[in-house]
Task: inverse folding
């Protein structure tokens, strides 16, 4: 048997397991802990592991109370595999694999194997899932517990072979325990129990399609198929008719869920007091989050399934009538009463999850939406039905595709939203990471595939009549045939695109992003460059990453002056600093005449400074290419102003009053020193406030719309300018809308308050020239400084000015 034959014979469960392992485990320990989010969890888990009591997360009151299971697994993994990333994340990753397999198990019981596999793929490709699966900022044990509860209760209520089994209830009970220990009893017990009772009440009149025992046995033996088996009674009648063994457990679970809900809401709402029933500590005062909090989280966290999941859940309302259809012997496990029940169960579970998660957010402040299993099952059943091609649904497909592209556009404009949802905090997106059009391409492939699949797959399979084109031209008929054939594989393309996108984000984007959000690369550079006995300190950096990455003892530097003193010592020393402090430190170190180099600038958040440059090292100072301090400071030359000539005295009139003497004129001699980037293409001369001299600019002579104008402004500093000013750049043409290029100096990296006399500064920005709002014409570039809002511009004290404290530089032809 060839390897291809072996692959084809691999059962769906095997594919689900392979997908789960490949999505979660590879490279699990290669990326550093994200600071401060993962690092704070790792710190706490390490202390728990050292204390020895895994289920005491406070470590004798040193940390805030919370459900113990997540931290216990992290601490146990550290004890088993070491105090590094892999050990901390491994058991959390196993919970993620368990959640994926639990969704497959639930799907096999409620629908059929193909729907179960598609549900597994859908769950694994949700950013809200796979990012939690690979990091410590995670509710993965809670997601795993809820998946077990969902599957166990669902399989017990409507078993595929008509027999209710105690093991299903026991697995659901295990899900209750895991959910309670990781998320509190409100989410771990009340949610699945109330969802079960709600589904029973809503599905009371659903009727499975009756089948002969032989027919049922044959159907269950078929690969990928499970069928309704009953005596034709409604679900409610069947449930009542099962006696104590079938009905009483349902009643007891319902009573348990209601009791937990009531007790939690009446006793666990004391501000500042932790409750395992709630799974958190209530806050006092007005709630910090509102209803749209979870909506936003789901919109970005479920991409590229965000839009489709709404229609997948809504399919339950359409399917409710299918259970009463006449027995035609064609029920295949994805239609009829059992399918309607499964979809209704997913809808009710997701709805109760949203309601209780909202309650939790209002009481505690922040939370992730953990009820992902029913969303994935609804998607799996929807995609499985779409593959059957029983009907054409172009309008639904168009709505789903449009919603997918809207979310893709939002992520394209704000890529931090993709990874901020599981952190419950905004990530400052590194400017060097460009997501590009990958998100748009993924959205287009998924949305387009869904649309074509829903609109044309039925015609391609011959189950839906082709459109009547009448006397349409031959080219249109050929195009229609081509679109239909392409649409046959639309759903396949959507699923594959989602898998590829999630794989690239998890295994390519996240490691790159980790270089900016983790101490690890910077401290590894210290370990590589430092010699024995050389010190490292940290300034304005929270966290304790040094102890995880072998940097030894890292001293805390309390002030800027202390940092200058630290780097002035005779031997080589290193300092870990925030990248946001570089401009201030640059000014302080230059003022103190202390040389420094940036040994590692690979992170946009952290920098490794040193007072000496070692052999083979490169100064990676990001200011170096745009800020240059002249070796010899400019010399001020003051000359008296020329006397003002008085008009002659007119006989019979009083003499003209002598005006006050003009102030002396100060010029500067730069001793012929030029910065490494050379002279500007367009020279200019204007002095702002007597402190900043504009010497020229670089920009193209022409630009075509739509496009961008690359603009470099050349300055040199005569004296310390005032702080808090921005640079404005106006492209003006008479009677036309102004093209604005206002920005902070060096894109915010070098505020004017840190500019020093003797510095040359090249400020670069790109000015958008949109097609719709920018008429063609010749525009004049005007430049100046202003504090923002209605504040006054810095006055031009010498040189070129238009009378409004704007320096005219030159013109550009916008075509």
Result:
């Amino acid at each position: 048997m060839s390897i291809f034959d072996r692959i084809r014979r691999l059962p769906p469960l095997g594919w689900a397991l392979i997908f789960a392992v490949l999505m979660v485990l590879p490279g699990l320990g290669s990326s550093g802990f994200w600071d401060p989010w993962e690092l704070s969890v790792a710190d706490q888990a390490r202390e728990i592991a050292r204390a020895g009591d895994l289920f005491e997360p406070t470590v004798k009151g040193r940390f805030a109370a919370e459900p113990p299971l997540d931290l216990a697994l992290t601490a146990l993994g550290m004890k088993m595999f070491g105090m590094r990333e892999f050990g901390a994340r491994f058991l959390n990753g196993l919970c993620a694999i368990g959640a994926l397999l639990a969704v497959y198990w639930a799907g096999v019981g409620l629908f059929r194997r193909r729907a179960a596999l598609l549900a597994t793929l859908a769950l694994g490709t949700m950013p809200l899932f796979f990012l939690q699966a690979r990091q410590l900022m995670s509710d993965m044990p809670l997601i795993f517990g809820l998946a077990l509860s969902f599957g166990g209760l669902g399989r017990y209520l409507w078993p595929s072979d008509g027999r209710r089994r105690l093991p299903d209830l026991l697995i659901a009970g295990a899900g209750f325990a895991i959910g309670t220990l990781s998320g509190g009893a409100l989410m771990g017990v009340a949610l699945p129990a109330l969802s079960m009772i709600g589904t029973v009440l809503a599905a009371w009149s659903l009727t499975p399609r009756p089948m002969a025992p032989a027919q049922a046995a044959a159907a269950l033996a078929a690969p990928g198929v499970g069928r309704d088996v009953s005596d034709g009674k409604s679900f409610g009648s069947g449930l009542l008719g099962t006696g104590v063994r079938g009905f009483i457990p349902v009643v007891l679970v319902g009573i348990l869920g209601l009791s937990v809900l009531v007790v939690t809401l009446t006793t666990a709402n004391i501000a500042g007091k932790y409750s395992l029933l709630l799974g958190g500590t209530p806050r006092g005062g007005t709630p910090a989050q509102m209803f749209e909090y979870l909506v936003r989280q789901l919109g970005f966290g479920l991409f590229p399934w965000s839009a489709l999941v709404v229609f997948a859940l809504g399919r339950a309302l359409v399917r409710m009538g299918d259970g009463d259809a006449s027995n035609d012997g064609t029920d295949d496990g994805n239609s009829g009463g059992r399918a309607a029940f499964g979809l209704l169960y997913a809808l009710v579970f997701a709805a109760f999850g949203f309601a209780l998660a909202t309650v939790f957010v209002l009481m505690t402040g922040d939370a992730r939406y953990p009820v992902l299993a029913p969303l994935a099952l609804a998607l799996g059943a929807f995609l499985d039905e779409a593959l059957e091609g029983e009907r054409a649904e172009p309008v639904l497909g168009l709505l789903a595709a449009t919603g997918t592209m809207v979310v893709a556009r939002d992520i394209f404009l704000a890529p931090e939203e993709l990874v901020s949802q599981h952190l419950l905090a905004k990530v400052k997106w590194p400017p060097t990471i460009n997501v590009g059009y990958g998100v748009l391409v993924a959205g287009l492939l998924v949305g387009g595939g869904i649309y074509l699949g829903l609109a044309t797959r039925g015609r391609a399979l011959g189950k839906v009549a082709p459109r009547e084109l009448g006397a349409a031209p031959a080219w249109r008929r050929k195009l229609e045939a081509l679109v239909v054939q392409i649409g046959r594989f639309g759903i396949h393309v959507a699923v594959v695109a989602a898998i590829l996108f999630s794989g690239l984000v998890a295994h390519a984007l996240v490691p790159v992003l980790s270089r900016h959000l983790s101490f690890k690369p910077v401290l590894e550079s210290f370990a590589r460059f430092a010699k024995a006995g050389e010190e490292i300190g940290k300034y304005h950096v929270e966290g304790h990453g040094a102890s995880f990455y072998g940097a030894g003892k890292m001293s805390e530097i309390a002030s800027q002056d202390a940092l200058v003193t630290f780097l002035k010592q005779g031997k080589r020393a290193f300092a870990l600093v925030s990248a946001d402090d570089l401009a201030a430190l640059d000014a302080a170190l230059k003022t103190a005449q202390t040389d420094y180099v940036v040994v590692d600038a690979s992170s946009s958040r952290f920098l490794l400074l040193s007072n000496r440059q070692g052999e083979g090292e490169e100064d990676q100072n990001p200011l170096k290419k745009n800020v240059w301090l002249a070796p010899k400071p400019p010399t001020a030359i003051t000359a008296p102003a020329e006397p003002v000539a008085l008009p002659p005295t007119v006989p019979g009139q009083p003499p003209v009053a002598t005006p006050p003497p003009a102030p002396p004129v100060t010029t500067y001699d730069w001793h012929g020193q030029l910065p490494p980037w050379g002279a500007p293409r367009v020279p200019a001369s204007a002095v702002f406030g007597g402190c900043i001299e504009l010497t020229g600019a670089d920009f193209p002579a022409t630009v075509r719309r739509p496009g961008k104008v690359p603009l470099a402004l050349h300055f040199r500093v005569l004296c310390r300018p005032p702080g808090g000013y921005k640079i404005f750049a106006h492209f003006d043409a008479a009677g036309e809308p102004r093209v604005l290029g206002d920005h902070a100096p060096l894109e915010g990296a070098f505020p004017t308050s840190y500019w020093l006399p003797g510095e040359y500064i090249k400020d670069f920005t790109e000015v958008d020239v949109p097609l719709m709002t920018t008429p063609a014409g010749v525009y004049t570039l005007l430049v100046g400084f202003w504090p923002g809002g209605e504040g006054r511009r810095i006055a031009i004290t010498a040189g070129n000015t238009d009378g409004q404290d704007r320096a005219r530089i030159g013109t550009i032809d916008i075509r």
Q: What stands out?
A: The radius of gyration is 34 Å. The chain has 25 helices and 18 strands.
